Amino acid sequence: MPEELRPQPAGEALAAARAVSDPALRAALLADRIEFLPEGRVSEVVGEAGLAAREIVDPILRAERLSGLIPFLKEAERLAGIGEVLTSFEG
Amino acid sequence: MPASSQPADEFAFARALDPMVAHMDAAIASRALRVARAVRDPGARARALAVLSRTVPEDERPDLLEEALAAARSIGDPWRRVRALVPAASRMPEPAREALAREAFDAAMSIQGDWLRGRALSMLRRIPTAELRRRALEAALALKAPKERASALSAFAGDLPPDELERLLAQAESIPDEWLRQSLLASLAEHLPRPALERAVDLARRLHGTPRALALAELGHALPDRDRRCERTHWPKRAAWLSRPNERKR
Questions:
Q1: A chain contacts of residue B1, beta-carbon cutoff 8 Å
Q2: Where do the structural domains in chain A lie, given as residue ranges?
Q3: Ranges under pLDDT 70 in chain B
Q4: CA of A40 vs chain B CAs: smallest distance (Å)
Q5: ipTM for the complex shown
Q6: What angle do CA A23, A27, A33 make, to 5 degrees?
Q7: Are B68 and B80 in contact (CB under 8 A)?
């Protein structure tokens, strides 16, 4: 298999995502890694992505990024999360 | 939606619903529906209502989808109308879907210009009817502009004969826009025979930055297991937000 086609180690991709300074991009990159994480690390990275999303100044973009994390939240937290996203669009 | 909201925000609402809709209870769904009905842009409203149709009981779904279709039909511009029709049409039960497929196809064919017509034809693939698929593919094959034709045809890669796939791959080489080239390679990836797949990998290597990473990841998924060896689940996922260059910089 060509070297360039080998998968990046998950940890390296996660480190690269964490190093991004723009919070909107960081939130998206972290969210993009979540489904590849072992179950024990999911909540840690969801939390990081959520914190990055909360740094976003534009409320609509913030809500959009938060919405992408909803499927990864614990069931008990999901409805509150959806409610928060909806509030941003209710104005 | 707040009175000051822009159409871009209203489309953001429709996009935000996608990952949330499966987790809504009746009260939250009803609240989301109120927001959706307040969306002023008919295209964004149609999309939001179509997504939310999943949250209502099955016997209420056709009415909600009709509401989405009415919003879509109010759009004069045929490209925007196709975009608004497709999410509702693809969720409609089968008997109604056939007529909607024809309506969406006619709207697509009334679009002037190969670029938007090609994009609309690609989008029609999401409405699962055999007749529409055949007609849309024929219309994509008939596009004159090579780049636009290639882009539209790539959505139908699974239906194309090997020689047409080869031609598309050859065309990908001449496309200067790296996002478009990446998109073409990604669409072809699963359908290319082995020698062509290797050529596609070479083409992907000549891209830069994110398009390069995405193209290599998609082509990596298409490689036979014996060549993949490493755990497939660690490949970078093709992220929806990365496939929308216009929205990346928001």
A1: 89-91
A2: 9-90
A3: 2-5, 7, 221, 223-250
A4: 16
A5: 0.85
A6: 145
A7: no
